[in-house]
Structure prediction request, 472 residues.
Amino acid sequence: MTGVRVLICDDEEESLALFSRMLGNEGMAVECFASGEKLIQRLRDGGDAALLLLDVRMPEVSGLQLLEQLRQLRPELQIIMMTAFGTIDDAVKAIRLGAYDFITKPCPRAKLLVSIRHALENDFLRRENRELRSQLKSPDAAGAIVFRSERFREIHDLALKVAGSSANIVILGESGTGKELIARVIHRQSPRSNRPFLSINCAAFSESLLESQLFGHLRGAFTGAVASHKGFLEEADGGTLFLDEIADMAPAIQAKVLRAIQEGEFFPVGAGNSRRVDVRFVAATNRELEREVAAGRFREDLFFRLSVITLKLPPLRERRDDIEPLTDYYLALFNSQMKKRVTGISTEARRLLIAYSWPGNVRELRNIMERAIILAEGCEITPESLPLTLSDGVSGPRAVVGSLESSLEQLEREHIACILEATGGHKSRSAAILGVCRRTLDRKMEAYGLGEPAPRGRPPNQKRQGGNRHDP
Prediction:
C-alpha cells in the first residue's frame, strides 16, 4: 500500500492526527480535511485519490449527505465510513449509498488496515475489469496475448525478464505467431514505456523509400521531397523501434542501421550532419537469420548487434493447448465488436479447430473466427461456419493437415495454393488473408513455383503506434 493516496475527512483534530500518523507509517500519502466543503472542493479541482475515510457525524453537512454527493462526483472513489456513534441503520444506509465499509471508532489498527487493503483490492479489480471491457471494444483488442501452454509461457516470462534491460532483441517465428505483440509487451514493461513504440515493415518498401522512412530526409534531397521529413528513427528517440521482416532489408540500409546501433547517430537523406538518437531496437523475421548470414544476405556484425537476446516463438501447431483459449477470446472479442450473440462453439467445430494444422498461426485463427461469427446462424459456431472442407462435403478452402513426413515448406506451399485457389488467383486478397504484404506473397509464389509474381505495386502505408498491424 506504499504510495497510495488516501483522503481523511473528520471534524475532530485528534482523529485526523491519529489516522494520518497511522496510515503515514504504512507509507501512504495522506491528505486531511476538517470539513466536507473543503473535501468537495479538493475533488472538484481535479485531485486524485484511491480511498477516502469519511466521518459520519460532522457539523453542517453530514458524512452520509457527503457520501451521496461523492457518488455523483467521483463514483470510482472507494469510501470507508467511520463513526464513534454507529448504528445499524447508519451502516445499512452507508452501504446502500455506495460506501465500501462502515467501521466504528476507535478502530483497531489491524482491522482498519485490513478494511483499507480490501477496498484497494476492490478498486484494482474494478479498474482491471473496466480496462478489459475497453480493450474488447477497441480495434486493438486482437492484440492481446492469450495463452495457456507452458511452452509459450516460458517465452512470455523470458520477454518480461529481458524487458527491463536496454539490450536489443531479435524475435524469430513464422508469420502470424505474435512477434509484434511480444515486442509491444517488451516495450510496455521497459523503462522506455512512456516513450514511442514505432513499427515498420522492412519488406513493404523499396530500398530508397525504406531509407527515407527510417532516417528521414531534408527538403530537396530528391525529386518530390518538397518538405523535410522526420524518419522513424528520430521519432522513436527514447523509445523502441520495431523492425519487422528485418531479413528483407537491403545491404546498404543494413550498414546504416548498424551505425545507428553502434554510434547512436544517423544521417537523414540529403543531410551533411549526423543526428543523435537513443533507441532500443527489436527486430523480427520469419527466416533463420544465421542461415541468411551464412548465405551473405545479412550482415554478420548487424546480426550480433541485434541478437543480444533472441526469442523464438513456436508456431500454433506446436502449442495446441492455446487453441481453445484463443478461440474463446476471439469469440468474445468479435461478439463485442459486431454486437453479435454467438455464445458458443459446437463440439464438432471445436474438434476441427483443434485438429487443424494452422499454417497461418494465430493470425489465421483470428481471421477464421471473425468469418465464423459473421456467418454463424443462431447462437453457436458450427462446422458450416468454418472455411474447412470436411469429409461430408462442407464447402470452402480445404484444410492443410500435415503429416509427420510433411515439411514446413510443403505445408506453407499447400496453404498458399489453397488461398489462391479460394480467391480465384486474386493476389491482393490472398495476401490480406495470409497476413503478409504483396511483395512477400510474390516472393513465396516464385520460390514455390506457384506462378510468376505480379509487378511490384505501390507499397502499403507504414505502420505507426496504434495503426494497423501486419503481424499480430
Q: What stands out?
A: Confidence is low (pLDDT under 50) at residues 137-142, 389-407, 453-472. The CA atoms of residues 56 and 63 lie 4 Å apart.
